[in-house]
Specification:
CATH architecture of the largest domain in chain B: Orthogonal Bundle
CATH class of the largest domain in chain B: Mainly Alpha
Number of strands of chain A: 2
Helix content of chain A: over 70%
Number of helices of chain A: 19
Largest sheet of chain A: 2 strands, antiparallel
Number of domains of chain B: 2
Radius of gyration of chain A: 23 Å
Distance between the termini of chain B: 59 Å
Strand content of chain B: under 5%
Oligomer: heterodimer
Largest interface: A-B, 91 and 90 residues
Number of strands of chain B: 2
Helix content of chain B: 40-55%
Largest sheet of chain B: 2 strands, antiparallel
């Protein structure tokens, strides 16, 4: 047998790459639109009174969160899996007809599921549980899509040549198992049409849990959906793409081991910090607080491991916009995994909860860490999928700075808005009466809502620059080498 | 030191699963052993209130309004008594929310009237200058789905033993019975009877005409629901 490199088959990776880009544009456009609705409420009726039911903030908000979480991010997870999986397991998708067919079917069903989700959410079919809004038929579709991905992961592992599972594969396995467990238990619901013997809407279901119990399960899910969609698989990406792009070996195997098992054990306890001062048992709240602080250790473990991987190669940050994205992603990961625990401290949470500081925190994680990591991964993958250099390096650099500026606008305005609001809600005057009406606190944050919208717009502009750059890459100059090593080639 | 485990995907996956499932077992199961028990005075939702709750959910009111009064003076001053676990015993799903773009609504039934809601839902800025809440004009013409609310009542009564048609203890020592129709027709007439009481306090002629024809617009149901939040 001749000794030549494997030809990996990137068909499915390519499809998911494009769904990442398109759903990213959709989800973030809705996000920017609803951000401006909060600043300029007349936008709620922008398509006229007749359609305002479908353009009002409430109807669109789940569409934004679910499109970026389950559209943009999950597509990105699948795209990178179908790329990274083959390469670290040293096996090509083309070697197994079954896995190839399954992969394609996985993509098609996923797209159908996304379409069903968008349509039902717009129609107002929602369970109201955050990031689990889909009604039961869509839930079933999601479970099927997820199981197909699981078969794909373990199928590829089953025929692997490289016996040791690389760190990224650990994280992909954990993503699969974690989301499966969380999603199933949080979406336990009874379809009322069948339970009542054929009455009412067939789409409707009722939660298997009531009140406080429902809240407990929801935030065990809600917090850990963040863990297993926005953290774990993104770490899988950075463990692969940072060393590959920089040509540096991972700084410490032991640190990755500690961070992985630490993260797995600690993360699931922290959900209680969403329910501080609520009616869930006090000990669950305290556990949530304490474990949130402990969570800094494994989170920073991964991030520091990444930063130290660049040790001695810092000039790459200056020379390569792709490395800039990777570096800032891990920096934002450090930043938001410090900010989160701070907000989980009870006395801070008393001010921060229910304010704009919370979506502010979410967005410096999702834009800075998740967004940048997925953008960087696709910038690394596209030239290897198309065997062409990146169309424009300067466009990429411009995108980096536009989006970084956008994120800074976003989180600074939301910090100020959130803390201002939290302090005003609790303020009493010298006679012991509430110092401000609720409307006072709405009026005072108006300028920050505009700034937040501008921040989101800048990020969205960057996403369009990214999409254009990847699109043009398909037609860029072909690369000479058949197999690219480390640094991604870029055109002017 | 774990190289052996990284060469064994099955054991690895089992290991990961045990480590991540552990916290859920410890933090969730003990609370589940004790089902959410209602406090005295908490009653199941009537058909119309439940239908109104569905309208509330359909429009994601919970995206901007919480239903959880935390035990701080500033919150009890603004919204009323802090929330108790048992008050949510019939809330499937819970609607605590996670963001207060608008004020908390857990006790809104104590301090807002049907008339106020009617005007406010039509044009919030007319009542609250500077409000950023959009109007919900379509609720004045969309018909509410009583059938689905009834289907949910049947479901929660049979699966979770929600006490419909049974005396429920009230704070003043009396009992109250929340009726649920034995048939869909009866459920519809119960809802309509309740809707007539709400609509009697409203001025919108279109709503009154619809009620007279036996139709219930969404606005009447959601006001019935908000009035029940006390």
């Amino acid at each position: 047998m001749e000794n030549r490199p494997l030809e990996y088959d990137y068909t499915v990776a390519k499809w998911f790459m494009w769904s990442t880009i398109i759903l990213g544009i959709v989800g973030m456009s809705v996000g920017v639109f609803i951000a401006f609705e909060l600043a300029f409420p007349s936008l709620n009726t922008v398509l006229g009174e007749g359609l305002s039911e479908y353009t009002a903030f409430g109807r669109l908000r789940p569409l934004h969160t679910d499109a970026v979480a389950f559209g943009f991010t999950v597509s990105g997870i699948f795209a990178t899996w179908y790329y990274v999986g083959q390469r670290v397991l040293k096996v090509s998708m083309a070697e197994s007809k079954f896995l190839m067919t399954l992969g394609k079917l996985h993509f098609i069903l996923y797209i159908l599921g996304v379409a069903a989700a968008v349509i039902t959410l717009l129609m107002g079919y929602t369970t109201s549980k955050e990031y689990a809004e889909f009604e039961w038929p869509v839930d079933i579709a999601i479970v099927v899509v997820w199981v197909m991905w699981g078969v794909s992961i373990f199928g590829l592992i089953g025929i692997r040549r490289e016996k040791s599972l690389y760190i990224s594969v650990w994280y992909y396995i954990a993503t699969f198992l974690g989301v499966a467990m969380l999603y199933l238990f949080n979406n336990m619901e009874i379809p009322t049409y069948f339970a009542s013997g054929g009455h009412g809407d067939i789409m409707h279901s009722v939660s298997a849990y009531a009140g406080t119990n429902d809240a407990l399960v929801q935030w065990w899910y809600g917090h850990n959906a963040v863990a297993f969609v926005f953290t774990v698989p993104i770490i899988a990406m950075i463990y692969y793409f940072l060393p590959k792009e920089s040509g540096q070996a991972i700084y410490s195997y032991k640190l990755s081991l500690l961070s992985f098992w630490g993260l797995m054990f600690v993360y699931l306890w922290a959900g209680g910090h969403h329910l501080l001062f609520s009616t869930v048992p006090d000990w669950v709240q305290t556990m949530g607080s304490v474990f949130s602080i402990v969570l800094i250790l494994p989170s920073w473990g991964s991030a520091i491991n990444m930063l130290l991987t660049l040790k001695g190669e810092w000039q790459q940050v200056a020379s390569s916009p792709l490395v800039k994205f990777l570096l800032l992603a891990s920096t934002f990961y450090m930043f938001s995994t410090l900010e989160g625990p701070v907000q989980a401290v009870k006395s801070v949470n008393a001010i921060a909860h229910f304010t704009d500081w919370i979506p502010g925190h979410v967005h410096d994680g999702t834009l800075g860490w998740v967004g940048f990591m997925i953008i960087a991964s696709i910038f690394h993958m596209a030239p290897r999928i198309y065997k062409r250099e990146i169309y424009s390096k300067s466009l990429m650099t411009a995108q980096f700075w536009t989006q970084t500026l956008g994120i800074v606008f976003y989180f600074t305005s939301m910090w100020i808005a959130g803390i201002t609001q939290g302090m005003m809600w609790r303020a009493h005057d010298e006679y012991g009466n509430l110092a401000y009406s609720f409307m006072d606190t709405v009026a005072v944050i108006h300028p920050y809502m505009i700034l937040r919208g501008i921040g989101g717009t800048l990020f969205l502009i960057g996403v369009f620059m990214w999409a254009y750059n990847i699109y043009k890459t398909m037609s860029a100059r072909p690369v000479e080498e058949s197999e690219l090593h480390s640094a991604t080639p870029m055109g002017a | 030191m774990f190289h052996w485990l990284e060469k064994n995907p099955f054991l690895f996956a089992v290991g990961v699963f045990l480590v991540i499932a552990f916290a859920g077992l410890i933090t969730l199961l003990p609370s589940f052993a004790q089902a959410s028990r209602p406090v005295i005075g908490t009653t199941p939702y009537s058909t119309l209130e439940l239908a109104g709750r569905h309208v509330y959910i359909k429009n994601s009111c919970n995206a901007c309004h919480s239903q959880l009064v935390r035990p701080f003076k500033s919150e009890t001053d603004r919204y009323g008594d802090y929330s108790l676990s048992g008050e949510y015993a019939y809330d499937r799903p819970f609607l605590w929310g996670s963001k207060r773009t608008g004020p908390d609504l857990h006790r809104v039934g104590n301090y807002r009237t049907t008339k106020w809601h009617e005007n406010h839902m039509m044009d919030p800025k007319a009542l609250v200058p500077g409000s950023i809440m959009p109007g919900y004009k379509w609720m004045f013409t969309n018909l509410v789905d009583i059938d689905t609310a009834y289907a949910e009542q049947i479901t929660i009564e049979s699966f979770f033993g929600v006490p419909y048609n049974k005396p429920v203890p009230m704070k003043d020592g009396t009992t109250k019975i929340v009726k649920m129709g034995k048939t869909l027709n009866e459920a519809n007439s119960l809802a309509l009877a309740e809707a007539k009481l709400v609509a009697a306090d409203m001025k919108n002629q279109n709503v009154k005409d619809m009620i007279a024809k036996g139709q219930i617009p969404e606005i009447v149901a959601i006001i019935a629901y908000m009035n029940s939040l006390k």
